[in-house]
Amino acid sequence: MLGRTGAFTGRCRFELKQCRSLSSPLLPRLHYPAGSGSRKDRTGQEAGQMSLAQINSILKANEHSHTLPRGPASHGVLGFHSNMLPSNHPSEDRRSSATYLPGCGGVLFGVFDGHAGPACAHTVSQRLFYYIAVAKLPLGTLAEIERAVEEERAVPPLLEWHKPPQDHSFPNGGATSFHSLRNYWQERLQDEDEEDGRVTPALVNAFRRLDCDLSVEAQVHLSMSSPRRLSLPGEMMSQSSPLRVALSGCTACVAHISNGILHVANLGDSRAVLGVQELDGQWLAVSLTNDHNAQNPDELQRILGEHPPSERRTVVRHDRLLGLLLPFRAFGDVRFKWSKEMLNRVHEARPDVLSLVSEGVRTPSPHYLTPPYLSAQPEVIRHHIRPSDKFLVLATDGLWELMHRQTVVQLVGEQLTGLQQQRPIVPSRGMTLGGLQRLLLERRGQVMSVLEDQNAATHLLRHALGDDGYGAVAPNRLAKMLSLPSELARRYRDDITITVIHLNESDL
What we know:
Helix 2 packs parallel to helix 4 (174-190) and helix 3 crosses helix 4 (174-190). The chain is built from 17 helices and 16 strands. A hairpin with a 5-residue loop joins strand 4 and strand 5 (106-115). The chain is an alpha+beta fold. Helix content is 36%, strand content 18%. Strands 1, 4, 5, 6, 7, 8, 13 and 14 form an 8-stranded mixed β-sheet that branches.
């Protein structure tokens, strides 16, 4: 779809109706101490008895690095490191990176955290960057693309993808996706008040329009499917089914970098953190996003203010939207967006569809009174990249549940500059021999982990899972965390996806 590997402008003509991941509430995220006892997998092998080669094989299975060509086309991005570590099977996280080609161009990076399955996250990771490109392109360029499509001529690619070869892939309705995207650029061409070139409204428009299209595609698919067809369940709920995509959901954190200007569009609870090196060489973590959940007082007040006072006790229950969903902004999740009448029609007329989802969503909630409850409007920040801004970390909440942002930046910064090997060990006054030995072992572990991982995202994964409490990696703890059987892994940690973007190309 128009690509090669390597203020909401359109009107949603269908009723914009909306949902949560049609599954039971997410499991509580429990954290267990490092020494919580040895566990065995189903073969009876002790979890801690993994060799370094086995540990590295698991940690590096999904790592990916890419260096951008030097020069203005890189927009000041040196390259990036990325990695994913699943907890769910299959993983519900996705990642994307691409350079968009027409016009002034730019580089795009994104991490997507799915729930109720990977369908929504996968689809959004494949389609959102096209929507951003269409939202950002000059109208003259869009007119040229439309003429090429009408005349059945070859259309130049919009994106150059930088895809890891090992990432998940399954069909995502190419014809339907293209039809929806074309409708979007046609509506942009018809809008007399359309403005060119402004990144912030383009990002907002792209997010909202894609979410609207996912809803419309699901409704069309639902209306065209007959409940009498025996093959229906497989067709309706395949991973690429528009209904499956809309019933599941995902958060998104996207970075857009062009000509030294960084924009971050965030939807949900993934995060973007900037690594800044101060004049004295110290590292500072600067958050560029806010979590959209009950822990954010402003976000909590926003969602409460959008509904009548009579719903104040039911809109958010147990820190979840309607007692069910943790993030307050997300793609998909149409059960929190569609009208009550539409949901009632689905519940009454299509029990065959609802039989394929969890018990918790087969009956309309008695508190579902004034939809929509869930928003797909991202929060966007603009930041002029300074010489001291050395890298940007995008990661799903699985990382931030295990590591503080300052620790993340410190680890990447010290790996980047080699400070761990250069900084002398200075014993503190009164330090015992045992304390000095522990300090030496800590430093040795830090140096070894830096040498082990050339990929900064892998380096973060190793520390997030194996941290010994002193800044080093405890091999036994790391082995235990990686040896957890699938039915237990989700209780200890979430899927983790990390992209580290290295900034400030020196010769630009």
